[in-house]
Amino acid sequence: MIAWAQVRRRVAMFAMFFGLLWPGFASVAAAGVLQSVRDRGHLVCGVSERMPGLSAVDKSGRWSGLEIEFCGAVAAAVFGTRENVKFRPVTAGEGPRALSAGDIDILLGGTVWTLSREADLGMRSAGVLFHDGQGLLVPRSFGVSSVLELSGASICVQKGTTAVTAVGAFFAARKMRFQVALFDSWADAVKAYVEGTCTLLTGDLPSLADERSRMAAPAEHLLMPELVQHEPTGPFVRQGDDPWLTLVHWTLLALIEAEQADLTRASVSDSERLADPRVQRFLGKDAALGANLGLAPNWTERVVAEIGNYGEAFNRTLGEGSRLKLPRGANALWTNGGLMAAPQFR
What we know:
Elements: H1 4-21, H2 24-31, H3 33-40, E1 43-47, E2 50-51, E3 55-57, E4 63-64, H4 66-79, E5 85-89, H5 94-101, E6 106-107, H6 115-119, E7 123-125, E8 130-139, E9 153-158, H7 162-173, E10 178-183, H8 186-194, E11 200-204, H9 205-214, E12 221-223, E13 229-233, E14 236-238, H10 242-260, H11 277-282, H12 299-307, H13 310-317
Parallel strand pairs: 1-5, 1-6, 9-10, 9-11
Antiparallel strand pairs: 2-3, 3-4, 7-14, 8-11, 8-12, 8-13
């Protein structure tokens, strides 16, 4: 694997080299990503091919996941339909370079929001789409409801990942005894856990839920409520185009506000719901909230009609309506003990 510091250096050098040799890139940036997207006729999202629940493609070429839903929401805001979007598979190392070069309009792919990504790579976070983190999976037969009850546990961990140091720090900070069993690959770590070599399996939440869904008895394995570390992920755009950043950011907030206002894909055209002044304002019925974004007055209505609200999108990709069956946790609305919240649309 390429070290993260090397990735930062390479992207920075690439951006400088690219700008010097292709002055036309500057004029494209100056024209604005929104106009480029409109002229092209579709949005381009950089995503992963193998992140179940977030972004993945099956053998028939069908994309699915929360990040896919979000890109559909941005397409709906711009074009009125979720269909005007194409997905470009990128790795962690390729994503920042593709964004810098203008090959993609939005970078997702489970990209974690960090200081270095904004300060070093010229990327700007457009908000948190999914509060991910390093979780812990344990057999139900242990009869525990918290990892704090598992002092002395052995933990299956993949070598060469941040999970190794993070899990050590987590247990040491709580003065708990533990043993780390290192494996060359994720598949080997999962196999060892299934065979009972370790008490716990650690990894990011979607990966743990995905592996659990493939086990012989998924219900016999529990995700602990504690996170070893919190890793907020979401859409990133290029630095220097504030209107595009604002549009992408507020599309995310529109999904959250729709859930806060109890608007669903089925109820967005319900005349009774339209009697609510908050809903009228959100849907642009009494104010042109889309004008300053370069969007139609009813852009939020388009988004909800095509995608639904944040809760609906989460449920069918990661939650109880999916095979992963992840609890909402931090991704619940703030009114339900989560971290998802949207400011007022006015």
